[in-house]
User: Fold this.
Amino acid sequence: GKKKADNRSTELIYADELIKKGTVAVRDQVMHRWNGSYYEAIDGELGIRHALKWLAGTYPERANKSTAKACVEAAILLLPQIPERDIQRTIIPTKNAYIEVKSDGSMERHRPDPSFGITFALRISLLGGGKSYTPGTLPPTSRLARFLNSSVPDQDLCDFLQELMGDTLTPTNCHQVATLLKGGGRNGKSVLVRLMSALHERVAPMRLDKLSGFQLMPLLNASLAVVEEVPAGGFDEQMLKALISGESVAVDRKYLSPTAYRPTAKWLISTNNDQRSRDNTTGFWRRLCIVPFIQQISPKDVIPGLDQDIITHELQLLLDWCLLGLQRLMVRGKLPPEPIAVRQAKQKAVVASNPVAGWVQDQGVESGVDATDQHDKDAVFARYCHWCTTNKVRNMTSVALWTALRAIVDIEHDGQHRVGGKRVRHVRIRFDSDAEQETGVSAADGSAKTPFDD
Assistant:
C-alpha cells in the first residue's frame, strides 16, 4: 500500500531522531551528546549549526537559521534529562576512566558511563587499569617539582596550593573559595595557570569587569574559570561571589533563550597588583585564598617553554600531584588553616582595598554582644588612628570611619551617658585582639582567630 505521509512538524522529526539515537540529553536547558567519556554540550551556535546541517541534508528547502533554532528549542523540551550527579560522591572524570575519591582518601576507578551524569572531563587519560588508583609522588628531579620548588619554596604554602589545585578537579563547590595568585612578573603564576588550563578540558577565560549576560556563556559546563587580567577596581564583587559559591545565575546564550545555571567551575585568578573592592565584608574576602608568588626568577634562570615541556611530558605528574592534594582535603573534610603567608597576603590586600576593612580584620572588630563591650567612640577612633600610624596608612575622619565601619560590621546605633557631667557617646563593639592578648595568644603567630576564619 501507499506509505503514510509524515504529518509531523520538522521540529518534531528532528527531536524524535535525536531521541532515537539515545546519546543526546538535556541539562540546564542545554543539549548534550554522550561522547564516550562524558556528556558534551552542544549549546548556542554549535547547536544551531548541528540542526542547520541536519536540515540541509533532510529538508533543504527549510534549511534556515530560524527553523534550525526552532528545532533546537523543540529538542530541548522533548529530550530526556541527563541523570543527576550524586553530589555526595567525588568523581574525577578523565578521558578513559573516572576516579572516585572516598572520604578515607582511597581512590576507586570506574568505567565512564552516562549514569554518572558527568558533563566534562580532564584532558588526560588515566594510566594503568584495575579497580583502584594510587597517585604517584612527585619525583624531585622532575620539571614540575623544580618549578614548584623555585616558585613556591615555602612548603606549607605549596601544600596549601596543592589542595586548592586538587579541589579544582571536583565537580562541586563545597568549599566556595577561589585561588588568587598574586605577585610581580617572572615568578611562575602564569606557568601554573597554563598548566592547570592544560589539565582541564573545559576552561572558561573570564574578565572580572564583564560578569553578566553573554560574558557568562563560557562558564556553561566549564570545570575551571581563569582570570589573567584583574582590573584595579570596578568589577562586580557580588556576581563574583555568587559564581564562586555556585549560586544559580542567569546566563544569556546566543540564538537561544537565557538559562538559569549553577556554575561548578573553580576560579583561578592571577594578578600583579592590589585591587580596590567595593565589597569589603568578610563574606567577600573569605572566598579568596590569596597565594603569594614572591620568588622572582632572574632572567638567566628562566627556562623558555617550561610550561609546554611539563604539559608535553609531565601532565600525568601534575594530575597525581593534584590528586594527592585532593586526597588530604577529602580525609580532613575541609581546607586546612591558611598558612601565615596566605594570611599576611590577605591582610595586605584588604588594607590596600580599604584600610578600615584591614583594621577590622587585624583587630578582629565585631559587633558587641553584652554590656562589657561598650566603648567610648572617641577612644575607638583614637585606637583606629594609632593602627593607621603603625601601618603607615592615612586615617579617615571620625565621621568617615563610622560610615565605613557600619558598611562592614553590623553595629547598633550609638548610645550615650554622662561621665563627670559630660555627655559621652559610646558604641557596642568588641575587639578579638583584646581577648587574644588576655589569653596570651599572639596574632603574629598565625594562630589567632580573625573574622575571615570559618
Q: What stands out?
A: The CA atoms of residues 294 and 417 lie 51 Å apart.
